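Morning F.,

Quick status update on the modeling queue. The single chain you submitted on Monday has been processed. Sequence for confirmation:
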Amino acid sequence: MASDLGIEGKTPCHQTIINWVTRYSCAKIWTYCAYTAPPSLVIKNDKLINGAIWLIDESIGLGSGKILTVLELKIDHHNTHEGPPSLGDVNCVSISVATSWTGESIADFLQQIINITGKPAAFLKDGGTNLAKGVRLLNEKGLFCHSIDDVSHVVANLLKREYTKHPSYEAFVSICGQASKKMKQTLLASLSPPKISTKARFMNIHRLVTWAEQIIKHSPCGRASKGSIISKLRKSLGTLPEHRQFIRRFLRDSRALLKCQEVLKIKGLSVGTYNECKTLLQYIPQRSRIYIGFVTWMENQLMVAHSLGVTSIGMPICSDILESLYGVGKIHGTGEIKDANRIALRLPSYCGELSDDAAKMVMGVSTKQQQDVEKKLFSLTRQRRKVLPNPGAITDLLTSESSQYLSLLPMPKVGEKMKKISNITDRCGNENGALSSEPKNSKETYGLNFQVAS
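Structure tokens below.
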């Protein structure tokens, strides 16, 4: 990048790197329409749709605001890749921060993007009710898109519905928590139970139950001499061995589901992987709600895969890449205080392959454009510096944050091509609607709110 960025033997300082990354993120969003063509254009029922899947999700615990991210993944990913999507396989379509995201605000934000880029073939999302409502509201507006449910959240929700009301569940979780306290800072510290987040607990609770199964085997039947290591272990575990039946049943169900989940993440959902999962589920009673729920979900998603034409190659069914993106963003270059705006501003730079045009894209964003974006943003660090040293200034914390959050949208192509952009809302009024010759109102094509885009 030296020739394009004007580096002449001088190592740039870290702030220069940060500025480059910020400009690169802005450039990737603003020039999305110019640099990223639909991976495989599809015409269905006389409709023009984007041959890509949009992954949508909001962040958890990344500062005072919540980040809503839209990533684009090729619909035929599993035809050209042997594993699940990585950050290099996706492009960031748009990103926005808000105090909270409701179904209505999600639908409005997605519609703004669709007005610029066109519709995706489907949305891939987790089990969040606000995301589901947002997609449903889009469908009611005539912007029909198929909906794909993330397999990890489906598995977690099935286990949650089955086991939260089990007589042993609350006691089991409590005993594991007490065991953790008793084993830490002792000789048994290396054997303490894994830490499970209270949010989305059933995404990882199988690790805790697996630990319980393994640790109980270290306490064989019979008496143990006073003061021995086994005696100390039994004292730490309390009544955990009394819940062996709960542990066995949970592991029977969770291990089968997790094997199916692994298959679907790696290969996608197809007729072949559906049959493979049915074989893996044979250890779960067919009358079980977990068995019925998972098979029903696979059959419903196969109908979506059939509509998209990917039943033979495998439909992407996992949105883990979004969690990976948030994890990377939370670790790198966020400062002492985790600021949602600061994190969101860099997320697009982590997506996609680093192309030869990267340096040109960086230089295409001026310092003024970067400053226009950043100076409007709500910043926890800036607020801390302003208020903490100045007694009496604490009332400044009441300043409205809503208008100071980041929102980056793609821009239509400039020049002559921009005149040819049509409003996809008018052209695709419903799933079976035909393409109209012109938009209802040509002004709608250009009246787009780019918010922070200069």
